[in-house]
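Table 4 source record.
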Amino acid sequence: MQYNPYRLCFQNENFNKLNLIYNKYMIVNDLKEVISFPKGFPPVSSGVLLRERNALITGHENGLVVRWDINKGEYSVLLDCNSPVRTLSYSGDNEIAVGCESGGLFVLRLDNAEKGVCLQEPQYSKYSRVWRAIWIKKDMLIITSTYGVVKIFNRTSPNSWEHSYLRGHSHSVFGIASSNGEYVVTGDYRGNLLLWKYGNGGFENIQTLSISGNVQDIHWYKDEVFAAITKSGRIFLFEKESADSDSWRVTCEIDVATGTGNCVNITDDGKTIFAATNNEVIQFDTDFQQTDISPITGIKRIFSRENTVYALNNKGLYSFERKEIEVRKDLISYKFVKVGLLGHTGTGKTTLCNYIVFNSIGDVKSTFGKRVWNWILPKDNNVEKRIILSDHGGQEAVLETFLPFLKDSDMFLIFFKQTDKITFQKALRILDLIKRNVRVNTKIMFVQTFIDHEMNEIPEIEIQQLKSEGRIIDNIKISPKEKIGLEEFRERILNSISWDNARIMVKSPYREGILKTLIYIQEKGHPAVDYGKFKTLYENIVNSKISDRHLKFLLKDYTNQGIIEYYPEIIDLIIFNDENYNKLMTNIPIYAEHKKGIVSIEELAKEFKDSAYLRIIDEVYARSKISIKNGDLRIFPEKLTNEPIEIPAFYKEHLKESQGIEIRLPNQLIEIGRLIQALSEINLQCIKASQREGIFAWSDKAYIYYSLSESGDDVSGRYISCKYYIGGKSETRKKRLTDEFNIIIEKLYGILSVKRSETSVKKKEAKKIEFDVALSFAGEQRKYVKEVATILASKGIKVFYDEFYESHLWGKNLAEYLKEVYYSRSNYCIMFISKEYLSKMWPAHERKCATARDIEKFGEYILPVVFNEVQVPGMDPAKKYLSANKYTPREIAEMFIEKYEAEEK
């Protein structure tokens, strides 16, 4: 095959270009036909893929709008526009918008196309053409046309729409995309990109950008990144200046196309951009900053879902699986595999690594935290290879602390001394933990040390059984001090590595600037730095822009070398891997173990002299589930004891009056941390806890004591018995705690049966009212509102506050869900009113729903808290409000609790 050079251009703020050469073709071997259009079917012009409905909607040059059944390959005509269809857009609510070259604009219902409405009659004029359409929310649609026309349609009733205009373009607008309805970007024939933000009931132009070429298509990834493709096929990647900014900038320009640009798509994880021209499909990897081309021609639209990519052309719909781009050898800095070293202190990990890497035993001492060795191998085919050996310490108390940081290891070496059976028993325990926490295909080897000693306490038959069961792939016997078995160790490790599948670190012109930035921060004495601040410093130091994904990718290189700790999937913080940090990472869990697994943050601050690293490590532990935040307490599940807890007299006395309930759970390994996390998430305060028991409380209003034990036998069947008692002053909150606990237990562990006395423990039935109170506010007041929410929740009030329900909200139709919450699922709505609150889209939606409910309840639903003297449209001006300037968050929360409890009585 002959290669044709194409160029990938990275731009800095002065638009200087660094040119890297890439190969032309990637091979798509698994191109699959999903739908084949009948022979002679009219050319396709647009499309929408609804994979969850097994449907494809296509628009055609002859004016047909067609629905295809992906499973059956059958089709039905939804509409004949008698004019080329130029755009289709799905609302997410069973409606399709259809825009035509004639100027016609239609909204069709997928369940009944005959009930569609015409929003704009065809004019058959070049002044009225509908080039693009996009739904912003279910009742708002934006279309673009010639001469810079951008038109907004708002639905006022099922068949009635009003329209207005966004003004700023002067030329035909062929590109438009939206990010969750808050941001919209429009791109025109002259390369002007206008960014709009929704607020105060309308859109405001917040930024204007310019690129070379006429914009053909735009696609967003979250609200952070968007990509645009021009008619010449050039792709531009834009990123937010910072997380709280409303400005974007070009961070990358890809100029490899040979055909006319048609469409662009960013995958769900943001790692890959796919774009299509008449001649090819272009793939760009945002981590590696690599590009490749596949000669799939005539693609009009491109879609992606997880690792599957769909391409639509005149012949039908095709799919292929996303694959990593094969990086050219001259662009590889090195290939590497990550090997995690585990085992009891003194088993010889440091000795072995020093000898393998430095050919000398060197200074041997116990490892605190993490220590990294780069085992650099001879180049193969001019490509450097590295084995990155990471020792995470051998203290018994810290093993679980490091497991979250080991999950991405390609291989584990677990060390034990043949002269010490205790170290072998710990190796078996480590093996069990790893098997539960890492990828199934991760390779695990045992390393048997001190083989120069005659004494051997380890039964060989047990090791052979582990190998035969596939739990380990090998057991290597060595004695580094006596240089016994080292060559065999090297050979067996190297033979177990598939370098074809190894990870790759690419050469990058940005690496030197990153090192300069790290040195600058370290010289300033900072123990850690927020990622956003690091990026700003980098760009100031080197006077050049860099994309987020590529910067994060390159920071992994310095993590591999042991210079920093950076785990963006856990916390977006760059931590300098110094001795103090490593000691604290080891000493905190040891201290927690002395405290039987429960310690307050104040105790930690006092014990460790309020170290600069303490708050950082506390956050790292919480994000990685090593510890659980429970108010001011930090609970380390793995450090909780198996000893019985002593219930405080106050709780014990009142719990004796309640009827105990027993739930039988399937026999299983109970991970108590999952239960404690769930109880903490509903803001129950931990009073006491162990591996088998616990008592948690919403102050004195409601509290629960539970115990878990193994029961049954081989004949009748073994099971886990979960017994619990609930007490407290508030009947409502006791009932809620019963419901919540049973739901939690069923979701986490499953329920076989229930034995109850007088208390019903049926699964919580669906009911209209779900929350005691919903909080409605603007982001600018989040700090104040969060404090109110936290206090309410700690008292057993079920409060709707968005951050408490992030995982629950993920993927939902927010407009519909929030309507239910603020209109029908809450007893009260505390509305935090400010000038920002009145100008934003989502607060406006919440306010509209809450106001409708307030009218129904004759003004007893909305409880206003005002930040400045503003009047809410549609709200009774005589309604009593509280001033946020006068009352603290705690006082607001306490006044609501007083009102709520009075109503409860």
